[in-house]
Every structure is written in C-alpha cells, then in structure tokens.
Design goal:
179 residues, five-stranded parallel β-sheet, globular
C-alpha cells in the first residue's frame, strides 16, 4: 500500500494517478469518493472545509479496499486525515506500506487551489483544511513511525514530473533497484 499525504493543493491526486498508471496499481482517492456521495451533510461539510467524521470516511475507505483483490498493490490519496484514521489504517494493513508526504507551503497551496475551481476550494474551506492539516499531520506521521512505516518527504514545489520522478526513485530504492 502506498499513501499520499499533503496539504490541500500539494498534488496528491495528480501524483497518485501518475503512479497508478505507471505501475498498474489500483487507486483510491478519498476526496473523489466523498465528492461523489449523495449524502448532503457530507457535501455541506466539504464545502465549508470541515473534516468528515472518521466513521464515515473509514467506512468508505474500507469498502474501497475490499473491492481490490487482496494480492493487488494499491494507492490511497488523501487519507488518513485524523489520528483515528491513521491508527485504523496502520493497524489494518498487513505487508509493505510506504507513505509519501508531499511538502508544500500554505501560500503556494492556496495559489494552486484557486486554479482548480472546485466548489470545496472556496477561501473559507481552504483555510480550514490547511489549518486542520497542519494541526494533525505530526500526530498522523507519529502513528506511522510507531508502526515502523516508511515515510518519504517529497518537495511538492517542484514540477509534476520532478515530484513523480522522486516518488518512483524512492519506490525503486525500496525494491532494491537502482533509482
């Protein structure tokens, strides 16, 4: 399992798509799944930048994981976002787990988000998501470190191709290949 974490606008979705296409892995985008829901309260919370409750998000992720063949590698983008979710995924997953934290400063993230033009990227929602991410990311990474899960920090200010090359390089290094 490969997990992409990062501030809103860091490029998690783009990088998870590129990697899934290149390696033939299944991909779970929690944000995409939540935006497709018919639950009005979830949509309202997303549009104001509120975190969706852990039980709802975990249920969606669990269902998505169950739909993947047990022997297939997969990528999760934008999950976990809370300590409870991090603990759940760290305790659930057996086998190899790699976490890519895409580092991007908040001012650059805001510039990128304004270009996306999504309903949940309004100023209030973006500010709230950035604040929550910054408040929670150290604890989330702490859960992974306690489980000896490998965490790679990637400079998200670089080009899409450069970030992708960094991710692929780390994966090849982990597999014992020359990057």
């Amino acid at each position: 399992m490969i997990i992409f974490l990062g501030i809103a606008g860091a490029g998690k979705t783009e990088q998870s798509k590129l990697l899934a296409d290149e390696l033939g892995y299944n991909r779970i985008s929690v944000g995409e799944l939540l935006r497709k829901t018919n639950d009005i309260s979830v949509k309202e919370k997303m549009n104001t930048g509120e975190l969706i409750d852990d039980d709802t998000v975990i249920a969606i992720v669990e269902e998505a994981i169950e739909n993947i063949s047990s022997n297939r590698e997969f990528i999760i983008d934008g999950f976990p976002r809370t300590l409870i979710e991090a603990t759940w995924i760290a305790n659930r997953q057996k086998g190899s787990v790699k976490v890519f934290q895409i580092i991007l400063n908040s001012s650059e993230a805001i510039v990128r988000l304004k270009l996306r033009n999504r309903p949940d990227d309004n100023d209030r929602a973006v500010a709230k998501r950035i604040e929550e991410y910054e408040d929670l990311i150290k604890s989330i990474l702490g859960v992974f470190r306690q489980k000896n899960i490998t965490i790679f920090e990637i400079d998200g200010s670089k080009s899409i191709d450069n970030v992708h090359m960094q991710v692929v390089g780390y994966i090849k290094q982990q597999e014992g290949k020359v990057a």
